[in-house]
Design brief:
With about 650 residues, this protein is of the alpha+beta class. Helices cover about 15% and strands about 35% of the residues. The relative contact order is 0.08.
Length: about 650
């Protein structure tokens, strides 16, 4: 379960004073190269294995996507030779034997455009090539002569000593305009100053930047859900500064790399599109899933000529509603569920009848004002909304609706019958829903029976039809997440629904070591959490015997703060206890605070433990809790040595 930083959540909530429908961004002159946020492919994943051959192969794979807007083939570092030749940049002769001009010709022949990375400092960010510091005019003329259409200008090896009395922002405001002016308006200029201290969102538009980065610190996006969401949140905080001709850049599209689910990749693509962000693929274009990255309706929102950055109109920290005005007077709406459980998210579109087009499914429905959908965990629903007199009803179909504030999947115990509900609501209220039938499908080997009627003759506007289901997973069901799928069929339409439930067994009666149980969720800073050994930071099983202040413990959990380890307890457990400390394998370094959380509240904590101190006993009352979490937080310094031990950790249940 990812916990949103409190300060960041508060800042996002503060943005909700923006009225809806949103005002259009101010009109600014746009160079010919920047009529819409750039789209294409970056060689970042290739690193220093990039070559003319690999770039040509990527261009071949990207060319079929060009009609959708994917036009830029961007070399991200490692293309430069280590030294200039006669004062001029040259391509690495081993990787690019024909030079950049020949490569540009090949790319242009595919109907695409070529992008190159350069550095504002003395060296390139990777590959050891020279930077463009004090050579801006010559380098700009050279790459334009080669046929470069796009320059990504990095922030590496900046000679700060050459700018006495100036801070990082002032140095950036000196160096970036030099290259922008040298390139001229015909070349896309991507300011890649990831260091948040340069605050490019405050001045990037005035400097002529086509795009500018929105990171808080110098770190590219990682191919995982927490990283993507964190970067999106910071990007959203810069929305007021973005607009036509100068857009916020939250980094590359990750779809196809394999670190996230299809649902999470679809969410990223939706959030980037409604934010008018560059849609630059990091994966091989041949491996990027077309169902996500080649959706023309979603791309059209991102490329809309108004160029507006979608704004938050509603958020509670987990469930977000974003709205983006479009050039033809329509609106785009995204419902984003940041939490770990499917949830229904709703918004009011205003008075009158509205036509609602689901941009991921293509379904077209109507509503008198309310827009609602059950959105999967880590997922996003995306719509185009316009005024219309359609009478096709908008139906909200919820499978296993979440109780208020619960962001975990429902837990079913193996071999035991649990209860799941489904809800169908005539949200749009443009006409009655007639002859409604609901079906629930469970994994093979499971049992499901409707405990209440699963059909109804009519559902009027605003009414809800609920079905209760008895669901029994087999005793052998894997202790993991399992999908439930459903359909709501009615006169003139059918709506799919889905949810995820977790199968987990609560501890048996008596006292049990936690390291002998299976956790239901886990997060760890470095390496995996280890059972009965310390955390070794790398591969599983690389730890040592648990040892705190010279005392060895045969049982317990070894982790690296920040960490969270969660167990399902079904309300049948009473006490959890352990000895908290920093493992001796880091010497006297390391500091952390260890806690116990029962459902949504903290019930015990260790206080500060350090590598120089003895173990601290922690005892927590967990009476009635359904979920219990062990939490290890950083002690206030860096986290490099925070090897925490939950020694002799036990749980007592009835």
């Amino acid at each position: 379960m990812r916990l949103a930083p409190a300060a960041l959540a508060a800042a996002l909530l503060a943005m909700l004073s923006v009225p809806s429908p949103l005002p259009a961004a101010a009109e600014v002159p746009s160079p010919a190269a920047a009529q819409a946020p750039p789209m294409g492919w970056s060689s970042r994943s290739l690193g220093c294995s990039v070559s003319a051959t690999s770039v040509r192969q990527a261009a071949d794979a990207l060319a079929p996507l060009a009609p959708l807007g994917y036009r830029y083939v961007i070399l991200d570092d490692c293309w430069l030779a280590p030294q200039r030749s006669g004062g001029a940049l040259v391509a690495d002769p081993a990787r690019f034997p024909g030079g950049v001009k020949a490569l540009a010709g090949y790319v242009h022949g595919k109907g695409l455009k070529l992008g190159l990375s350069l550095s504002a400092g003395t060296k390139a960010c990777a590959g050891g090539g020279p930077g463009s510091y004090k050579s801006e005019a010559a380098d700009a003329a050279l790459v334009k002569g080669w046929g470069a259409d796009y320059v990504k200008y990095d922030w590496c090896s900046i000679p700060a000593a050459d700018f006495p009395g100036k801070n990082v922002q002032q140095i950036a405001q000196t160096l970036y305009p030099r290259m922008r002016q040298a390139l001229g308006d015909g070349v896309v200029f991507a300011m890649n100053n990831e260091d948040g201290s340069t605050v490019p969102w405050l001045w990037g538009k005035d400097a002529g930047a086509t795009t500018w980065r929105t990171n808080l610190y110098n770190k590219p996006i990682a191919d995982n859900y927490p990283s993507m969401v964190s970067i999106w949140e910071y990007n959203q905080l810069r929305a007021e500064y973005a607009g036509a001709g100068s857009w916020a850049d939250p980094d590359l599209i990750q779809a196809g790399l394999g670190g996230m689910t299809a649902t999470e990749y679809r969410a990223q693509f939706s959030l980037w599109a409604i934010g008018a962000a560059p849609l630059i693929l990091q994966a091989d274009p041949a491996k990027a899933p077309a169902a996500i990255v080649a959706n023309p309706a979603v791309i059209a929102v991102g490329q809309d000529r108004l160029g507006a950055h979608g704004r938050l109109v509603r958020s509670d920290g987990w469930y977000h509603v974003l709205v983006k005005p479009l050039a033809n007077g329509n609106r785009a709406v995204v419902l984003f569920n940041e939490s770990d459980r499917a949830a229904t998210i709703s918004t009011d579109l205003g008075a009158g009848r509205h036509l609602v087009e689901d941009l991921w499914t293509g379904a077209v429905t109507g509503t008198k004002g309310a827009l609602a959908a059950q959105v999967p965990a880590h997922g996003a629903a995306m719509y185009r909304v316009l005024d219309d007199q359609t009478r096709v009803p908008l139906v909200t179909f919820e499978v296993d609706p979440s109780p208020l504030g619960d962001d975990r999947p429902t837990v079913l115990e193996p071999g035991k019958t649990g209860e799941i509900s489904t809800r169908v609501t005539n949200t749009g209220a443009t006409r009655p829903v007639r002859d409604l039938t609901v079906r629930l499908t469970v994994p093979q080997g499971w049992q499901v029976t409707a405990r209440t009627p699963a059909t109804t003759g009519q559902l009027n506007g605003g009414e809800t039809f609920t079905v209760t289901w008895a669901v029994t997973p087999p005793a052998t069901a894997a202790r993991t997440d399992h999908p439930l799928n459903a359909t709501a069929t009615f006169e003139g339409g059918q709506v799919p629904g889905a949810a995820v439930v977790k199968v987990a067994a609560a501890p048996g009666s008596g006292t049990t070591y936690l390291s002998d149980l299976t956790w239901t969720a886990v997060q760890n800073h470095f390496g995996p959490v280890e059972k009965d050994t310390s955390n070794g930071e790398a591969a599983a099983g690389d730890g040592k015997p648990l040892t705190i202040a010279g005392v060895r413990y045969a049982k317990g959990l070894g982790a690296h703060a920040p960490a969270e380890i969660e167990y399902y307890t079904a309300g049948r457990c009473t006490t959890l206890q352990f000895l908290a400390g920093i493992d001796d394998e880091v010497g006297q370094a390391g500091s952390a605070r260890l806690e116990v959380w029962a459902d949504g509240g903290r019930v015990a904590r260790s206080g500060l433990v350090t590598g120089a101190g003895a173990a601290v006993r922690v005892t927590a009352s967990i009476q009635g809790a359904r979920h219990v979490r062990l939490v290890a937080g950083n002690g206030g310094d860096n986290a490099y040595s925070d090897h925490v031990d939950f020694a002799d950790a036990t749980i007592t249940c009835t």
